[in-house]
Specification:
homodimer; 314 residues; 13 helices; 12% strand
Chain lengths: 314, 314
C-alpha cells in the first residue's frame, strides 16, 4: 500500500473506538494510518488499506485529516507533545468524550484551543456507537457536529456506508455534551440494574438523565432538541444498556459492593464517566444548575455514599 | 369495608394496569371498587380496602372518581352502555392508549366527548409503568396530564407514595400521544432485538421513534418537550425493552416467522400497537407528516412486508 497524503486518514488511538473507525474508513476505500503507543498497537493482521505505526510524526505527516480517539485524560498531554509544524490538518475529528478537570473545558474546546493557529476545522463525533458492535458491522447511526458544512460533508462521505449512517448538526456544544454526560448516567444505570432491576425504574432514571442533560446544555448554549437526537437520547440508551459499556460495568461492580478503586482496577481501562462526574458537578455548580441524579452518582463515586441513595427522592 | 362515595375510587377494567392502579390506591388508604366483566374479575383474595364487582351500575354509583383502564378497542362500546345519570363523576382518569380507527380521535378525546355534559374533568395517565412491576412495588414514575390543576393535585395525592412518583403536565395531547405511539415502535424493537440484536441498532431506531413522535405531536398541537419526558422517551424505553410488553412480544414472534394473526393468538391479549399502527398511519397521512419507521412497521403488520425491511434506509 502506498500512502498518499491526499486521501490517507490518520487515526490517533488504537483503542476499541479508534480501531472501529479505522476499519470503517479503510473498508470504505481510504488508506488509514493508525497510531498508538507501541504497547497498544494491534497484534493481529490489519485489514486491507490499513497500516499501524508507533511513530507519531509519521502518522501526522501522512494525511490532511486526523481522527482523534484518545481517552480524554490523555488528550492535552498528547497534543502538547506534537510540534506545531506537524499540526497542519485540514480537518480534525474529535471522538474524545470528557471535560478537563481544572479548566472545565470540553475535549472539543481543548482541541480547538490547541490547534487554532493551524486553521484546522473541528468535527465532533458522537452517538450510539458501541465500538465492538461497529466492528461487527451492526447497523449504527451517529451524529457529526461542526461549524463548517464543508468539513461535515467531507467526513460524512468518509464514514458512511451500508451499515453506518451519519447525521450532521451545527450544535457542537450539545452534541459533545451528550456524549460526555451519558457516561456518568451509565454508571447510575449499572447500579440500578444490579440493585433494583426494573424497566420502570430504569426508564424513570434515564428520563431524569435526559432532562438533566437538557438543563446543563441550556445554560452552556446548546440547543435543547440536540439531546433528543442520536448524540443525546440515543447514545444515553446505548451506553447505559450495553453490557459492553465500561461505565455501566463500573456501576454494576460498585452495586455488588466493590470499592470504586477495586472496581476500576477490575475493568482495567479508562472509565470516562468516573472523571466526568467531578468536572460536570463543578460545571453545574459554576452555572448554578441543579442536577440531582448526577450529583447522587458523584457522591457515590467520591463521597462514599451508599449506591442505594440513588433511589432516594430526587 | 363500608364504601363511602366521598372517598371511594372506581377502577374500570381488571387487567394488569387496572389491577396495579387499584392496588396502589387501596394501599394508599382509599377504598377501591374494581369493575370488570365477570370472567375477567380476579379470582384471588383482594387486598385490604379493595372490592370487586361485575355490576357496572354499582361500580359507577359508588364514587366521584373513576379510573378507566379498558383496552382502547372497547372503550367507546363501554361508555355507550352507561346511562348518562350514572356518569356524574368529578374526575375521570384515562389509562386507555389508542386512537379510534374511523374518527382518528385519541381515547382521551373519545372520553371527553362522551362525558362532556357530565362536567367531569379528564386526567390522562401515562409513563413508564409496566403493570407487573408496579404491582411488585418497583420504583415507578409517571405523568398525569389535565387542563385542571385541581384535578391534577387530587389524583397525584391519590396515587403517589414511596415507590410511585407522579409528575404533572398540562399537555394532554403530547402526554397521550406518546403513550399511543410507543406501542407501535415497541413492535419494531421486538423485531430488531430478534433479527439484529445490537445496542447500536436499537438506540438508532429508538431515537428515530422519538423524533417521529415529536413530528406528529407538533402538527397535532403538542409541546415538543413533552416527548423527552416520562410519557415520551421514558414510556418508549420501558415498553420497547421490557420482556413483559405484549407489543414487543408481537414483534418478536413476527421476526421469528409467525404470521401476524398467529402471533396475536399466541399473545392472547390486546396488543394496542397493532391497532394504533393503522390509525397513526392515517393520522400522519391526513396531516402530511412522514413517519418512515412507523410506516415500515405498518407495512410489516398489514401489507406482508418482510420484517427485514425495518433495516432499509429510512
Amino acid at each position: 500500500m502506498t500512502l498518499n497524503k491526499k486521501n490517507t486518514i490518520t487515526v490517533l488511538g488504537a483503542g476499541n473506538m479508534g480501531m472501529a473507525l479505522a476499519k470503517v474508513v479503510a473498508e470504505n476505500g481510504h488508506p488509514v494510518l493508525l497510531w498508538d503507543l507501541k504497547k497498544f498497537l494491534p497484534k493481529q493482521k490489519l485489514p486491507l488499506r490499513m497500516k499501524a505505526t508507533a511513530d507519531l510524526q509519521e502518522a501526522l505527516k501522512a494525511s490532511n485529516i486526523a481522527v482523534i480517539a484518545i481517552p480524554s485524560p490523555y488528550l492535552r498531554g498528547l497534543l502538547k507533545k506534537i510540534p506545531k509544524r506537524l499540526l497542519k490538518h485540514e480537518i480534525l475529528v474529535n471522538c474524545s468524550k470528557g471535560i478537563e478537570p481544572g479548566s472545565l473545558k470540553r475535549m472539543g474546546q481543548v482541541l480547538e484551543a490547541m490547534t487554532r493557529k493551524s486553521g484546522a476545522r473541528i468535527v465532533d463525533f458522537s452517538g450510539p456507537s458501541i465500538a465492538n458492535e461497529l466492528q461487527k458491522k451492526e447497523l449504527t447511526a451517529v451524529t457529526l457536529a461542526s461549524h463548517s458544512p464543508q468539513a461535515l460533508k467531507k467526513i460524512s462521505t468518509l464514514f458512511k456506508n451500508k451499515y453506518f449512517r451519519v447525521k450532521t448538526s451545527s450544535d457542537l456544544i450539545g452534541v459533545e455534551l451528550g456524549g460526555i454526560m451519558k457516561n456518568v448516567y451509565s454508571i447510575g444505570i449499572g447500579i440500578t440494574d444490579t440493585l433494583r432491576p426494573s424497566a420502570n425504574t430504569r426508564s424513570y432514571l434515564l428520563t431524569q438523565a435526559l432532562e438533566e442533560m437538557m438543563m446543563l446544555g441550556k445554560v452552556l448554549g446548546a440547543k435543547t432538541e440536540t439531546f433528543s437526537g442520536l448524540s443525546g437520547m440515543g447514545d444515553l440508551i446505548a451506553t447505559c444498556l450495553s453490557k459492553d459499556s465500561r461505565n455501566r460495568k463500573l456501576g454494576e461492580a460498585i452495586a455488588r459492593g466493590k470499592s470504586v478503586a477495586a472496581a476500576q482496577k477490575e475493568i482495567g481501562q479508562v472509565t470516562e464517566g468516573y472523571y466526568a462526574a467531578v468536572a460536570l458537578s463543578a460545571l453545574a455548580r459554576k452555572h448554578r444548575v441543579k442536577l440531582p441524579l448526577l450529583q447522587k452518582i458523584h457522591r457515590i463515586l467520591y463521597k462514599k455514599a451508599s449506591p442505594k441513595t440513588l433511589f432516594d427522592p430526587l
